[in-house]
């Protein structure tokens, strides 16, 4: 008793102030996330399992049960060593569905708000003795160091500071599913402090009290034998039962569940902790026997309870302060987490179930202050339980009452993971049986002081004479599990429970249904939820869910809306528990009534399989590999493919179709056919409505150009076990259509050329005779009328001769005689000569020609033939232009060739004849002013030079006019037309 109350208050307050400063440093960013989110910090935070029981209770248990105290450490170590098959599945569920507590998990699995309420009440009853144990050790330590008559008041002051800390850094928002980096850092620091203190006390015991390991061994072999004789090593059955209790505590205790599953950042972090936490607990366990033996050697056991032998190691204040700080570090961390975990459970499964939120003006603030009030109430409840009940019992009794109580949830948790056939009726029935046995045997006697009521069922008479805690543990758990199994097998399991069982199963792949919702987009979600949450909270929650999913507020795809609904339910589960969240979502975001029978959401199932495939093994892994191979085959087919369900919802949009359409599959999967961007909704609707299974070469405008698509459909007949639908293949036959048009055009030109040659031959001779006779007639008479008639005949025969000459030229067009080599030609010079010829043929300068062609580069070609091309093009441009208009001739290098463009400002070309301009006898001029052979001849000459000709009317960016552009290769033997 070397310390004073003010000194103890300063010591405890100083330690809590250090924790506060640490949390503040994390909040302000002084300590970065690289440190606070390190796996080592998470492992140390898990050390909160080592509560005040690990500091003091283990000494008490070791003094009576010897190495039986190790069960406390080995039980949780076993749970974490089984992390891949036990902890990781629970973590997956809690992260996927935003389940922040054991009550959330049970309510989600068994689809009942009352299940969550029952688990919450059991947790509260079971944790109260554990809370009282924390406060009791604090009060006892203060008494041992100060001799104060009322240490409970100082303990109350410390409880108030702990509650304030929990409110400031653990309950800073209404949501309970968020990560608290500052809280994790503080818990980790507390674990580090208590580990250092325990190792320090152990070292003091070994090297100061004893003179090293040899002296310790000598004492154990000598005087220590008397103390060892009083130790009763636990029976193997008792040992296994203790292991089971502490194993269950690692999974079920509210604060351990919270830190293990809610605060973890990743599966990898949890797996690392599966070996690091047992190592931490081993270091915590090593000093316990050293402190015990040192206390016994000093005779401290005669004046101190065995739990507090650390205070008897020395009269030195710093040694006792080390023992006190170790306990305070363990107590503060445990109480903070218990208060946070229990407050969330009580809020979500008791208060909100009794009084659901109805359009609160400030929902988040309302939930925040409710939770803070509950944090204070939980801590105060622990102190009151200590003052009224705890002071009358030792630490072991309080601890066993807490651990046996929480173990009643173990059958339900294991069934939740591994037995899909379990239902809430069986779970509640078994839980009630086990709860009654526990209440009558352990918890009730804590309150009343009456002897435990131990009921030994028939056939278990061998349990008579065993320790009460052992009998009650076995009977309660056996009755719990037996009733659970029998009732579950004898009663019906609801559809909702079966769906939840699939979600919770270790091999879960959820198969949700495709059902339409009443709301049609995210904005309507906000309006509907506002009736339950208020405008601000509804808008915030919907926007958060949209951000999580990467969706837009106006996305109306049924699949996107179903995902949004599920995400909202998961997010609201973290805010107010799964039961209330499900009630709100079912009530305000309902499915559409009268919709057709639901089918499985295949796309969602596949996305879940992709996320889950790393955990598949054996045949399941092989089948999934086959599924992925088939999916990849369809996705990467060089032909467009899409699939629709029986309800008309788009299920697949492969890569080739995404490239062809310019529409990413992720943006349309789950949409209805009629909501697809134009022209795909109408085009796919056409093939779906078609009685035949094919549509060939449908003209479709894509990216500003006309493409020709062929569509083929195949119906997938559905039945009870296989969903049906429709598969559509989309092939781009544009190039084939263009090639066919070219071939038809070439064949037409060939036939017309043959006709032109024959006509020219047959007409040429008579026309020559007529022309000769008309010329002779002018010399045979002087009659003016006859001379005028002869002149008219001569003019008409000249016109016919020109037509015949054009026909002969067209018939020979495109034929390059062998042995006639191309020579370098300057398009600038050819254009100048063509302009000169145009001016000779038409008097006046009513149209302005601008030759902007550079002298270089030169093309390989026939200068006379190219001159004929330019004369035709410039003549057409002149005829289409009004007086004063300009005709511009430009040239530029392009793709191993020369691009020459003739642009006029005329009235343009009628769309009806634009596609036929290169066909013979097609003209836009009035009758008698054109033969329709000029452009076909140009086409033939350009083809002879391996070139290409294009027409734009009007040119881009203009309202009128025409641009005809030629591409001629610099070397016809090597050049390729640009695409």
Write the layout of secondary structure elements.
Layout: H1 5-27, H2 33-36, H3 39-46, H4 52-65, H5 71-81, H6 87-97, H7 102-110, H8 113-146, H9 151-169, H10 181-209, H11 213-221, H12 224-229, H13 236-252, H14 254-262, H15 267-285, H16 287-298, H17 317-354, H18 363-388, H19 395-407, H20 410-418, H21 424-448, H22 468-490, H23 495-504, E1 513-514, H24 522-533, H25 535-549, H26 558-576, H27 578-588, E2 599-600, H28 602-612, H29 618-635, E3 640-645, E4 650-653, H30 655-661, H31 665-668, H32 680-689, E5 694-702, E6 705-716, E7 725-732, H33 734-780, H34 784-812, E8 823-825, H35 827-841, E9 848-852, E10 859-861, H36 863-880, E11 886-893, E12 897-904, H37 911-914, H38 934-944, E13 948-952, E14 962-969
Parallel strand pairs: 9-11
Antiparallel strand pairs: 1-2, 3-4, 3-7, 5-6, 6-7, 8-10, 11-12, 12-14, 13-14
């Amino acid at each position: 008793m070397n310390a004073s109350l003010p000194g103890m208050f300063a010591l405890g307050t100083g330690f809590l102030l250090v924790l506060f400063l640490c949390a503040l440093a994390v909040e302000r960013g002084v300590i970065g996330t690289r440190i606070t989110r390190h796996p080592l910090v998470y492992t140390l935070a898990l050390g909160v399992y080592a509560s005040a029981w690990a500091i003091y209770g283990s000494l008490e248990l070791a003094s009576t049960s010897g190495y039986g105290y190790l069960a406390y450490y080995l039980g949780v170590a076993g749970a974490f060593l089984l992390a891949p098959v036990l902890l990781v599945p629970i973590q997956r569920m809690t992260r996927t569905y935003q389940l922040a507590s054991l009550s959330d998990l049970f309510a989600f699995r068994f689809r009942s708000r009352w299940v969550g309420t029952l688990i919450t009440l059991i947790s509260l009853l079971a944790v109260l003795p554990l809370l009282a144990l924390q406060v009791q050790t604090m009060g006892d330590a203060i008494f041992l160091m100060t001799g104060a008559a009322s240490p409970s008041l100082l303990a109350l002051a410390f409880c108030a500071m702990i509650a304030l800390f929990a409110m400031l850094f653990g309950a800073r928002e209404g949501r309970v599913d968020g990560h608290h980096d500052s809280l994790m850092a503080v818990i980790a620091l507390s674990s580090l402090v208590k580990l250092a203190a325990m190792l320090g006390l152990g070292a003091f015991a070994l090297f100061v009290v004893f003179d090293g390991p040899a002296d310790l061994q000598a004492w154990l072999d000598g005087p220590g034998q008397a103390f060892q004789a009083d130790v009763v090593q636990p029976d193997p059955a008792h040992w296994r039962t203790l292991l089971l209790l502490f194993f269950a505590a690692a999974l079920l205790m509210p604060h351990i569940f919270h830190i293990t599953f809610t605060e973890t950042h990743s599966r990898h972090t949890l797996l690392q902790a599966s070996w690091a936490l047992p190592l931490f607990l081993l270091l915590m366990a090593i000093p316990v026997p050293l402190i015990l033996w040192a206390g016994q050697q000093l005779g401290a056991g005669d004046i101190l309870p065995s739990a507090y032998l650390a205070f008897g190691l020395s009269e030195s204040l710093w040694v006792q302060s080390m023992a006190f700080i170790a306990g305070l570090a363990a107590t503060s961390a445990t109480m903070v987490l218990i208060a946070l975990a229990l407050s969330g459970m009580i809020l979500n499964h008791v208060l909100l179930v009794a009084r659901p939120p109805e359009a609160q003006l400030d929902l988040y603030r309302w939930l925040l202050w409710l939770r803070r009030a509950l944090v204070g109430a939980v801590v105060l409840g622990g102190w009151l339980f200590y003052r009224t009940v705890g002071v009358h019992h030792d630490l072991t009794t309080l601890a066993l009452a807490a651990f046996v109580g929480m173990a009643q949830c173990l059958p339900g948790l294991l069934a939740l993971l591994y037995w899909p056939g379990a239902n809430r009726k069986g779970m509640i029935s078994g839980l009630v049986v086990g709860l009654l046995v526990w209440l009558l045997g352990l918890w009730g006697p804590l309150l009343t002081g009456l002897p435990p009521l131990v009921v030994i069922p028939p056939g278990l008479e061998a349990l008579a004479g065993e320790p009460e805690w052992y009998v009650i543990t076995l009977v309660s758990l056996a009755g719990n599990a037996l009733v659970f199994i029998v009732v579950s097998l004898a009663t019906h399991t609801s559809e909702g429970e079966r769906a939840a069982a699939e979600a919770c199963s270790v091999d879960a792949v959820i198969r949700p249904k495709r059902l339409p919702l009443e709301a049609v987009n995210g904005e309507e979600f906000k309006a509907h939820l506002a009736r339950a949450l208020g405008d601000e909270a509804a808008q915030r929650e919907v926007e958060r869910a949209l951000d999580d999913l990467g969706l837009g507020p106006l996305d109306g795809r049924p699949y996107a809306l179903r995902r949004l609904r599920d995400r909202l339910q998961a997010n609201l589960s973290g805010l107010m528990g799964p039961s209330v969240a499900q009630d709100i979502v079912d009530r305000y975001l309902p499915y559409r009534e009268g919709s057709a029978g639901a089918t499985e959401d295949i796309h969602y199932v596949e996305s879940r399989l992709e996320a889950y495939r790393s955990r598949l093994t054996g045949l399941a892994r092989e089948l999934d590999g086959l599924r992925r191979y088939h999916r990849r085959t369809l996705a990467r087919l060089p032909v467009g493919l899409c699939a629709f369900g029986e309800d008309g919802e788009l299920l697949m949009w492969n890569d080739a179709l995404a490239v062809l359409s310019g529409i990413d599959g992720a943006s349309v999967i789950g949409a209805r056919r009629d909501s697809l961007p134009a022209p795909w909704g109408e085009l796919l609707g056409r093939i779906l409505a078609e009685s035949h299974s094919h549509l060939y070469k449908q003209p479709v405008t894509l990216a500003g150009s006309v493409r020709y698509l062929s569509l083929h459909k195949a119906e997938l007949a559905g039945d009870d076990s296989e969903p049906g639908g429709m598969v559509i293949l989309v092939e781009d036959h544009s190039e084939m259509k263009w090639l066919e048009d070219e071939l038809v055009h070439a064949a037409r030109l060939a036939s017309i050329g043959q006709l032109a040659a024959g006509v020219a031959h047959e007409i040429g001779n008579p026309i020559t005779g007529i022309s000769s006779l008309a010329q002779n007639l002018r010399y045979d008479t002087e009659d003016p009328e006859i001379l005028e008639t002869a002149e008219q005949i001569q003019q008409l025969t000249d016109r016919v001769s020109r037509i015949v000459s054009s026909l002969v030229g067209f018939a020979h067009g495109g034929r390059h005689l062998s042995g006639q080599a191309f020579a370098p030609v300057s398009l600038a010079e050819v254009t100048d000569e063509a302009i000169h010829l145009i001016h000779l043929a038409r008097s006046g300068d009513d149209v302005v020609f601008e030759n902007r062609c550079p002298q270089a580069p030169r093309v390989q070609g026939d200068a006379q033939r190219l001159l004929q091309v330019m004369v035709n093009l410039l003549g057409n441009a002149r005829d289409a232009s009004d007086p004063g208009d300009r005709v511009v001739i430009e040239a530029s290098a392009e793709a191993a060739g020369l691009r020459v463009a003739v642009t006029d400002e005329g009235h343009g070309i009628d769309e009806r004849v634009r596609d036929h301009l290169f066909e013979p006898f097609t003209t836009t001029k009035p009758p008698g002013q054109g033969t329709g052979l000029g452009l076909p001849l140009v086409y033939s000459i350009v083809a002879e030079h391996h070139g290409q000709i294009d027409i734009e009317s009007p040119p881009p960016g203009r309202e009128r006019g025409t641009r005809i552009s030629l591409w001629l290769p610099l070397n016809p033997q090597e050049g390729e037309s640009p695409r």
